User: Fold this.
Amino acid sequence: MLTTVHFFDGKNIVLSQMLKRVPSVGEDLKIKGKLGKVSEVTQTDEKNVRVLVAFQSVSKIKAAADNSKKKKR
Assistant:
């Protein structure tokens, strides 16, 4: 039986999918390239499920530009 699963990050909806298997609490997910963990699963009615996902914060470190390889004018 297919259920509609709505994935939320806080109050923002991230993704809605029709799934045969509903994710469980503590399960790791990857949605739109972000890693997250299911923190809460709530069944709203017979065919709809709300899943609250806590995404990991990603810190991007930019490498210093190597100017030695650039052509000098």
